[in-house]
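job 3f2a | input accepted
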Amino acid sequence: MADEALDQPPDAAPSPSLAPATPPAPATSSPAALLRPRREAFEHGLLPIPKLIFPEGMLAQTLAQLKEKLAASVPDGRVRAAALAEALQIPQEQAALALGTLAAVLPAEDPVLGDGAMDGAAADIRDVLLFLYIQSYKRLVPRSAHKDSPAVADVWPSTSAFDGYLSALSPIQLVRSNSRRFMPSQADEEIHQLSFLQKHMANILTLLADSVEGEGDDSLVLTMETFEHLGFLVQFSEGTSLSQAATFFANSDPDMPAVPVPAAQVLDWMSQNIAFSLEYSSERSVAKESNQQTMSDLDVTMAEANTSHSRNSTPSANPAYYRNVTFVEGFSKTSVVKHASDVKGNSIKVLNCHDSVIYILAPLKYATVYGCSDATVVLGAVGKVVKVEHCERVHIIAAAKRICIANCRECIFYLGVNHQPLVLGDNHKLQVAPFNTCYPQLQDHMMQVGVDPSVNKWDQPFVLGVVDPHDSLSHPAGVADVKAESATCLDPDLFTSFLIPSWFGDEGQEPINCNPFPLPEIYEAFQSKKRSALEDIQKMIRELQLDENRKRELAAALHAQFKDWLYASGNIRQLYCLQGD
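job 3f2a | predicted structure (581 res):
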């Protein structure tokens, strides 16, 4: 194998392998034809479960043995949770989590797998192998962690036994130390992902290939169906399928099965496309560094956001680099609204926003909230995964299939989720509560992305470990893992509904005043108690026997108190921001 020295010990039994040739430049030089890593797999598909992650020196050999074991136990080529649990020697609930996570990051729906939770859910063995392979991926780390900076040492308390090892940076640290420029850009991460695929592609193809009679490279072949499964890892930026882009499968007669192709030929083709994409991306990255830019071609700096775009606009991207992601980044002391018409693609990233209110009133597949503090983020409907990471004193309101919470502090999550919230990393003082808002199009958006309002597992967190093996900073040698701190349920007496201003809605549609997720009985009881108290106060005021002067004085006093509250709470700024849009 190309990575024999890395993925097989010296005494390993020999196996059919591929050796990549030095790739020529691909036939096309158009940026629109660049091969890209599928970010969803790397961003939302990694689980910090130790038994899913194999040592790099044994990776290919271990997965080959696992393939044989699974193939023997699943003759239909479909892996169920019980079979995966048995093969990996993990609890069945962790195996079910792995299949559910795989379902959430597949490029297309698999009707047999569904969302991974239905009875009999089973994944294609090829997808399972690819999913397990990328569990060995290590995320790109910041160029400087600033863990000893005296300017920020008092903000992110060192109460954890793992402090000094974890890569978590407080959002306040990010602001005070200006360390955003040290964080990997989107382009940096993509280059890192492509480099991982380039290094391991020979082993990946060997793992997927079928053995046939022949010698050397001719003994391993890939069918067109198996080749398409590589779409789990890579895609062309303009949306062309892999089999149509590859000359050896392009324009195959749909009525005739395509002839299997030697894996060595596939490796040459993949290698040349990855090499070309890496060269092109690296050149752009160097140009960016020379111009002292801090963001990739799809990122937007605050200067650009404030001078080139209106508050709620999305920066336009070169179509050749269009990755179906909308960014809301770097906002402070303001409010931002995104409707469905404002969101380009099926994913959104809310990054490094502080002391702000962010409304994402749109149907999405993926959402990421990263590095925010003292903010409220409303996510309308997310059909795959929400990931919230490195946030502090943030309120997240989300209707979603799944949510993953990592390395957060003093945050409250108001959730309508169909699966157990996944909690991992170095968390402190997290609280969860039922979903608490609505807007006119919410139920339509939930229906579009498949979020079921009759199922809400907001109060059933699934807790994994503190140490993330995918992050080399947080996985030092010799440090044992412990279970992450879980979330507690918000006191029902502190639960309130969150009102989205009516001017955000479609003017032609009547507002919907009901929460699509039924409230638990105890929360509903406290809400009813508060409504009754308000009605009693309103009735008492109406029944007061006052002359006109005293009525005006009472109204003035109420308005003054309300205005004082608006200023004290910071909500006055939100009113000014939103009415100005």
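job 3f2a | The domain at 325-504 is CATH 2.160.20.70 (Pectate Lyase C-like).
job 3f2a | closed
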